[in-house]
Amino acid sequence: MSIRLIVGLGNPGPEYEQTRHNAGFWLVDNLANSLPGCRLQRESRFNAMVAKTRIAGNEVWLLEPLTYMNRSGQSVGTLARFYKINPDEILVVHDELDMVPGVAKLKKGGSSGGHNGLKDITSSLGTQDYWRLRLGIGHPRSLNLQQAVADFVLHRPRREEQVLIEEAIDKSVRIIPLVCEGKMDVATMQLHTA
C-alpha cells in the first residue's frame, strides 16, 4: 500500500510559524520545496494549503490544514473522502513530546498519545489505522524546563533543539519516496538507523 496523502500538522499564522507544534508543517514545506514545480496553495474547500505532486512516480497530495491543530481532521477527512484515499494511504507528520529532538519515527496506527491533532483526524477518519511520522520535540520535563506542555509546544525550540529537529526533518524527507512506493519496512529501517 503506497502513501497518497501526506499531512503536516501545525497551526496557521505567523505567531505559530516557528513553534514546536508546527514541526509537521516544517516537514511538508521542506518536502514541497525539494520537489520541482511543487507549490502549496490555499484550497478553500479543504480549508488547507494543498499541492498535488509526483513522488517516486506516484501521484501524492500534500496537505497543511488551516483549521488549527485541534480541528485538523476536518481538512484531512474532507480531502481523503473527495479523492477516495483510504486511511492506510495517509501519512500524518506531527510533533512528538515523547521523543527527544533529533529523533524521527514511522509507525502505523496507535493512540493519539494526547495529541489533539491526531485525536481529531482519528475521529474524522473513523479509525486510528493511518501512518504517522513522529518528529521528536522533547518534553518540558525531560528538557529540565518548568513549563506546561501546552505552553511548551506553542513556543520556539531552543537553538540547539531546532538544529536537531531540522536534521530529523532532512532525514525524514529522504525516506518519503520509499514511503510513497509503499516500502515501509525499508523506509522505517533507514529512518530509525540513520
TrEMBL record:
Q: Where in the cell is it found?
A: Cytoplasm
Alphabetical UniProt keywords: Cytoplasm, Hydrolase, RNA-binding, tRNA-binding
Which residues take part in binding tRNA? Y16, Y68, N70, N116
Q: Where is this site: Discriminates between blocked and unblocked aminoacyl-tRNA?
A: N11
Entry's PROSITE patterns? PEPT_TRNA_HYDROL_1, PEPT_TRNA_HYDROL_2
Query: What positions are marked as the site Stabilizes the basic form of H active site to accept a proton?
Result: D95
- State the Gene Ontology BP annotations: protein quality control for misfolded or incompletely synthesized proteins; rescue of stalled ribosome
One of the record's GO cellular component terms: cytoplasm
UniProt cross-references to SUPFAM superfamilies, sorted A to Z: Peptidyl-tRNA hydrolase-like (SSF53178)
Catalytic reaction equation(s): an N-acyl-L-alpha-aminoacyl-tRNA + H2O = an N-acyl-L-amino acid + a tRNA + H(+)
Assembly and interactions? Answer: Monomer.
Q: Name the family the entry cites.
A: Belongs to the PTH family.
**Which protein are we looking at?**
Peptidyl-tRNA hydrolase
